[in-house]
Amino acid sequence: MVRWRRALSQAARGSGRARLSRRHDAARRRALRGVFQLAAVQAQLRRPPNTGLRDPQLAGPSSPTTKEVAGLLVRSLLRKLGQTGYCLHRDDIPGKPDIAWIGKKRAIFINGCFWHGHTCARGPRQPKTRAEYWRTKIQRTQRRDNANKERLASDGWKVLVLWECELKNKALLAERLVSFLA
């Protein structure tokens, strides 16, 4: 509403003519209002079409994944054990370990039992749909994990693989971490 009044006053000042009449002013206001409404409609038409997807920023914060929770658990245990100075998810180390000490050449991988094909109760489960796809995907992941461990070992790194199912027993986990970092 302020826009068309401003435009009207600028138009009246810029025309150099005296005001003709109130009826003429009202007609000019209606015309300008129509121009601004048309511009608003055109702006709406220029918007990208609604694809049916929600804007992710409108959603609330997502809950952390199991892998993130496992990583937080291991890192909190490491802090309680007095082990600091580690790096997270380094790209320059083969396999991009979850936790790595560059100077000590130690790497910790935290693997999900299903995704990496562990032999525990959860690991060998087979999905009912697209079973062949998932079987090959998990086998590919296992081959990649083994290749990364071999590359790290050849470079002089010590590697510890923690499985999702092993994180439930915190005392045993603490013992494994202490013996690995000693």
TrEMBL record:
Question: What GO MF annotations does this protein's record show?
Answer: endonuclease activity; hydrolase activity
Q: Name one GO biological process term.
A: mismatch repair
Gene3D superfamilies xrefs: VSR Endonuclease
Q: Which CDD domains match?
A: Vsr (cd00221)
- Asked if the keyword Hydrolase belongs to this entry, the reply reads yes
Q: Which key words tag this protein in UniProt?
A: DNA damage, DNA repair, Endonuclease, Hydrolase, Nuclease
Which SUPFAM superfamilies does UniProt cross-reference here? Restriction endonuclease-like
Region of interest: Disordered: 46-65
Q: InterPro entries, from UniProt?
A: DNA_mismatch_endonuc_vsr, Restrct_endonuc-II-like
Similarity comment: family membership: Belongs to the Vsr family.
Q: Which NCBIfam families match?
A: vsr
Q: What is this protein called?
A: DNA mismatch endonuclease Vsr
